[in-house]
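Re: the request from the purification team.
They wanted to know what the chain is likely to look like in 3D before they choose a buffer screen. I agreed to run a prediction and write the result into the notebook, where they can find it.
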Amino acid sequence: MYDKILILQRFSIEKFLKGIGEGFVYVDFDARTHHNHGTKFRLRQDSLPDLYETAQTVT
């Protein structure tokens, strides 16, 4: 059962770079002792729509 669906269209590299500058997208260096989980981008939980040209919520 779903309460809502988020439709995201046209990822924007400009908005992604802006997110890094504003701090809601950040780099996670996940290296631990004896095991490297790699480097990845993370973002604040509610910020995903901010990276797209169009974001629509369907309830």
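For the purification team: The radius of gyration is 15 Å.
Please add any questions underneath this entry.
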